[in-house]
Design goal:
Shape: rod-shaped
Strand order of the largest sheet: 6-3-10-8
Strand content: over 45%
Largest sheet: 4 strands, mixed
Number of helices: 0
Oligomer: single chain
Number of strands: 16
Radius of gyration: 30 Å
Order of helices and strands: EEEEEEEEEEEEEEEE
Length: about 200
């Protein structure tokens, strides 16, 4: 804008020289927006030049973030998944899952997609007896006659098939499963969601 005897942002300044006059003109670089949209069932972040600018906890409507940069700026954009999620990649002005370098010659939009890579498996042992339940993915949950309630958890890769094996103590007997398994027969399921 203008300084001195002129002011404002008009492109023309007119003044009458009845005495010495001082006129200043100040210029700044134009700003452009980089818009980032995060979507998907997973949780993650997007960083620009090493600083996190947008994040999503997953399983919510798309998160949209916008930052302003000097036109002509060169920026590096990276995506990072949080625990239990995976980064599927960029879209829009970036592509693929690797770091993306772009020059902001105008407003740009980037999309980033995250998906769940692990689901939580919860085993709960209860009743008046005691024993253990062993899952095929390596988790063992054990209760005792003095502490008959036991709750055990583990993150399991999406799509894995898990089988459970019950081992009651000599003083106890196995009654039945509940939750994602029922009855007394063998229990096996695929990790397509949280299981308990």
């Amino acid at each position: 804008g203008w300084t001195g005897v002129c002011s404002g942002l008009a492109t023309t300044c007119t003044t009458t020289l009845t005495q010495a006059r001082t006129v200043g003109a100040t210029f700044s670089r134009r700003q452009v927006d980089l818009t980032t949209t995060l979507s998907g069932s997973g949780a993650g972040t997007v960083s620009v030049n090493g600083a996190v600018v947008c994040s999503t906890p997953g399983n919510i409507p798309a998160v949209i973030c916008s930052q302003s940069f000097d036109i002509g700026s060169s920026v590096t954009v990276t995506g990072a998944a949080m625990s239990g999620s995976r980064f599927n990649g960029f879209g829009g002005a970036c592509s693929g899952a690797s770091a993306c370098s772009i020059v902001l010659t105008g407003p740009l939009t980037i999309t980033a997609n995250f998906s769940v890579s692990q689901y939580l498996l919860t085993l709960t042992l209860s009743g008046t007896g005691a024993g253990s339940v062993v899952s095929s993915d390596g988790m063992t949950c054990t209760s005792t006659l003095t502490n008959t309630l036991a709750v055990c958890t583990k993150m399991v890769e999406v799509g894995n098939t898990v089988s459970l094996n019950v081992n009651p103590t000599v003083e106890s007997m196995f009654d039945s499963y509940s939750g994602d398994c029922t009855g007394k027969s063998s229990c096996s399921f695929q990790m397509t969601a949280q299981r308990a």
